[in-house]
Design goal:
By secondary structure, the protein is of the alpha/beta class. It has 14 helices and 15 strands. The chain has a seven-stranded mixed beta sheet, with helices on both faces. The structure holds pyridoxal-5'-phosphate.
Length: 345
């Protein structure tokens, strides 16, 4: 396999040397037997819970599983949960909430992932009247479909206040919440303080090979262990990926500013090229959405891939995601290739 410049997602980043070493060492340790007996997993869960400011955390294989566990913990068949149509739980989770829990999604209007508060209020009020009060609100920060836009702390707080008015829980799909915290200039625990549960990936911007975390109140996380098992997620021995997850949390969060700066640089570079549109201003985290004007997104994806630059066509746009393997020189190379293609080269 060639070493192309891979902007398709941040999960393509390979584990760092330190992670590999930690995994090799973890492989030599006894694994434990019970579902929460592995010491390295416990260490990761303790650290993750501390960082996001929750009582407990559970290591799960994917962020989708974390989201679905969070929904299943709050909803039984027929229960409503509020979200918006471009949320990952709607666009990319195969209707899992409906299939697994029987929960019914109520999609309210939103701007770049920020749910319209009036719409949430109206839905909570009207559904309460017919005894169908929503059990959960799912919010995503950063918001992937809008190109990694950030939901502000003020908005998160207002939503949280609203949720308390109706006694509804909030789940934060924070697959890239560390990128959001970097962009806002706050801690992840500040963002997560406006949610009851939070899910995030260890294998996106943080570079671990796999794994995600679901964090929240301890009694809920204890039940989450059972739901994880129900979904086939009782993975053992998980100490090996957990060892990489610990390194991810200890060494990879601070450097996300570099990915944000690289995304800005990339967006600025694209904005100087004819035949493609991009919003530099809207590039808030590590995702850049661009719109080719004279060729289709899939045509551009194909032509770039022939030049060893991998990007993703998405909703009539071309998505570029920066991560720690994307260096400044990789960005310059990619911009050069893009310019040649759009010039007709
Ligand atoms: C916002 C968001 N939530 C959840 C997920 C699911 O993550 P995973 O691939 O670990 O299931 C993704 C994946 O890209 C995502 O972007």
């Amino acid at each position: 396999m060639s070493d192309a410049i891979d902007f398709r997602s941040d999960f393509v980043a390979r584990p760092t040397e330190e992670m590999v070493e930690a995994m090799v060492n973890a492989a030599k340790l006894p694994s434990g037997f019970g579902l929460r007996e592995n010491q390295i997993v416990s260490e990761l869960e303790f650290l993750a819970a501390k960082i996001v400011g929750k009582e407990d955390a559970l290591f799960v294989p994917t962020c989708m599983m974390a989201n679905q566990i969070a929904i299943a913990l709050r909803c039984v068949a027929g229960d409503r949960f509020i979200t918006e149509k471009s949320a990952h739980v709607i666009t990319s989770e195969m209707d899992a909430a409906h299939m697994l829990t029987g929960a019914v999604a109520v999609e309210v209007s939103a701007v770049n992932g920020s749910l319209e508060l009036d719409a949430v209020d109206e839905n909570c009020a009207s559904l309460s009247k017919i005894e169908k009060k929503p059990k959960l609100i799912v919010i995503e920060n950063s918001h992937v479909r809008s190109g990694g836009r950030v939901v502000s702390l003020e908005h998160m707080e207002s939503l949280f206040e609203l949720s308390q008015k109706y006694d509804v829980s909030i789940h934060l799909d924070g697959a890239r919440v560390f990128n959001a915290a970097d962009a806002i200039g706050c801690t992840v625990s500040e963002i997560a303080s406006f949610s009851d549960t939070v899910a995030f990936n260890l294998n996106k911007g943080l570079g671990a090979p796999l794994g995600a975390i679901l964090a929240g109140p301890r009694p809920l996380i204890e039940r989450a262990v059972e739901v994880r098992q129900l979904l086939g997620g009782g993975w053992r021995p998980a100490g090996i990926p957990a060892a990489a997850g610990i390194i991810a949390l200890k060494t990879m969060t601070e450097r996300l500013a570099v990915d944000r700066q690289h995304a800005k640089k990339l967006a600025m570079g694209i904005s100087r090229i004819d035949g493609i549109e991009v919003s530099v201003k809207n590039t808030e985290t590590n995702i850049v959405l661009s719109r080719p004007l004279k060729i289709t997104p899939s045509d551009l994806v194909d032509r770039l891939s022939k030049r060893e630059v991998l990007v993703l066509a998405m909703d009539q746009q071309v998505r570029w995601v920066t991560h720690y393997e994307i260096t400044e020189s990789a960005i310059n190379t990619a911009l050069g290739e893009l310019q040649e293609i759009l010039r007709g080269g």
